[in-house]
Amino acid sequence: xxxxxxxxxxxxxxxxxxxxxxxxxxxxxxxxxKSRGLPRTEGHRxxxxxxxxxxxxxxxLGIEYLTLFSFSSExxxxxxxxxxxxxxxxxxxxxxxxxxxxxxxxxxxxxxxRSDLASGLRKLLTKAETRTQNCSxxxxxIAFNYGARDELARAVxxxxxxxxAGDLLPKDIxxxxxxxxxxxxxxxxPDLIIRTSGEQRLSNFLLWQAAYSEFFFSPVHWPDFxxxxxxxxxxxxxxxxxxxxxxxAKAAQ
Length: 253
Ligand code: FPP
What we know:
Elements: E1 21-25, H1 29-34, H2 40-61, E2 65-72, H3 80-103, E3 107-111, H4 119-131, E4 139-146, H5 148-164, H6 175-179, E5 192-195, E6 214-217, H7 227-238, H8 249-252
Parallel strand pairs: 1-2, 1-5, 2-4, 3-4, 5-6
Helix pairs in contact: 2-3, 3-4
The structure holds farnesyl diphosphate.
């Protein structure tokens, strides 16, 4: 398969180990637009350009998984015109970029609830996953119509069905087993979660998976989140001491 990665990140400051999985809450499109006297939709349009650049950058840095929170299960509460616009952007992104992503060896996976999506959109998401299923470079996880509590509720429902059918015993419900019912069952937990635009909250994103994630809150609005801003987040991650409830190597001596 042709791999077309023409980008080499400036790794001189990033020689330490890369996070395997980076997840991003792309926030600040509306504020970016407002500060320029533009309609909010213009912020989302610019946001797609940042998506393209971030995928390219993550791929170039050798990150294995990149999850983008592109539409939450709560985003339906926005004005219908804005919802329509974001859905249209996502559709167009997949339609126009799918072959390019395939050539770049990027695998697409979509998490979130599909049951209440229009059938055309559902088909497009499945097409993107099927087309790229054998790609072995970066896995781009698109969180679409995603909410962590909804994901957990769907997982518990499936699990309860399996218990009721006698396929699973209550004593066998371990945390590993629960993970197998989540949308992210084939995706490792995020090592680093970035939120742009200064807000410092998780907003129903990957609640289970974030148990030991490192957080980085960037003041930059998503449309302005460039190579330098991404590299800053990676650099901060590389200087964290991850202990997973244990002791750091230094403290244990
Ligand atoms: C948050 O900014 C952004 C969103 C809710 C939508 C993000 C969607 C895209 C970037 C486009 C589609 C995605 C892909 C993967 C192609 P906000 O509107 O909440 O900003 P604000 O907090 O400043 O109002």
